[in-house]
């Protein structure tokens, strides 16, 4: 029998896809090793790491001789390999809804939050990024007014919720966005957080510690 290998996650707390994967691994109590790369110091561009991921980005998951970058793909791989059916969606229609929101995220919340956070790290502002994010949150607010408590209309969170939550909560930590006009988004965020008792507090604390050090 082949010897089992421990998963290795290349991670940084300000990489929100990295946080999503860490949430799933910790909540599902999957044994893994974390290798922290300080993106602010450019460690993701080191010769050693570029041998792991020539794209020079985190997150990256290593499972034996299998190397997988890209947060959404990693979430799906972990949930599939470990038979985490509720995180993937229990049936084809629910899985399609999960994929819908994961795909939407890349051109909406992910793109717009990046436009907000990157300038904030160097004490600048991006008005276009703020407008794009407000549009994304308004879309979420409308959707969550018709389904709930989670994005795919499920009774427990899926990997779609895990992928988007860190993009949302980081803006509160950085003080970059007021969610008061979006009560459904705030309720959703709270519901996802409360569904992650083993993983969320430490996950958020790592980001908060980084922001406090700026």
UniProtKB/TrEMBL annotation:
Keywords recorded for this protein, A-Z: Cytoplasm
Listed InterPro entries: Glutathione-S-Trfase_C-like, Glutathione-S-Trfase_C_sf, Glutathione_S-Trfase, Glutathione_S-Trfase_N, GST_Theta, Thioredoxin-like_sf
Domain annotation GST C-terminal: ranges: 91-214
GO cellular component: cytoplasm
Main location per the UniProt record: cytoplasm
Keyword Secreted: no
Domain GST N-terminal stretches: 5-86
PANTHER family: GH16740P-RELATED, PTHR43917
Protein name, entry field: Glutathione S-transferase
């Amino acid at each position: 029998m082949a010897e089992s290998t421990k998963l290795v996650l290349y991670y940084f707390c300000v990489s929100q896809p990295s946080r999503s994967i860490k949430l799933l691994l910790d909540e599902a109590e999957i044994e893994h090793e974390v290798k922290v790369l300080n993106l602010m110091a450019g460690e993701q561009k080191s010769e050693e790491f570029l041998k792991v991921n020539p794209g020079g980005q985190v997150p990256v998951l290593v499972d034996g001789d299998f190397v997988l970058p890209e947060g959404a793909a990693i979430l799906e791989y972990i949930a599939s390999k470990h038979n985490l059916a509720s995180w993937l969606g229990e049936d084809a229609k629910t899985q399609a809804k999960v994929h819908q929101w994961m795909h939407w995220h890349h051109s909406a919340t992910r793109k717009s939050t990046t436009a907000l956070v990157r300038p904030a790290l160097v004490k600048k502002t991006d008005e276009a990024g703020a407008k794009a994010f407000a549009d994304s949150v308004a879309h979420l607010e409308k959707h969550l007014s018709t389904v709930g408590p989670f994005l795919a209309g499920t009774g427990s969170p899926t990997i779609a919720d895990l992928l988007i939550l860190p993009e949302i909560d980081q803006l509160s930590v950085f003080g970059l966005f007021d969610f008061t006009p979006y009560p459904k988004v705030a309720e959703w965020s709270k519901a996802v957080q409360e569904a992650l008792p083993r993983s969320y507090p430490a996950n958020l604390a790592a980001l908060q510690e980084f922001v406090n050090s700026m």
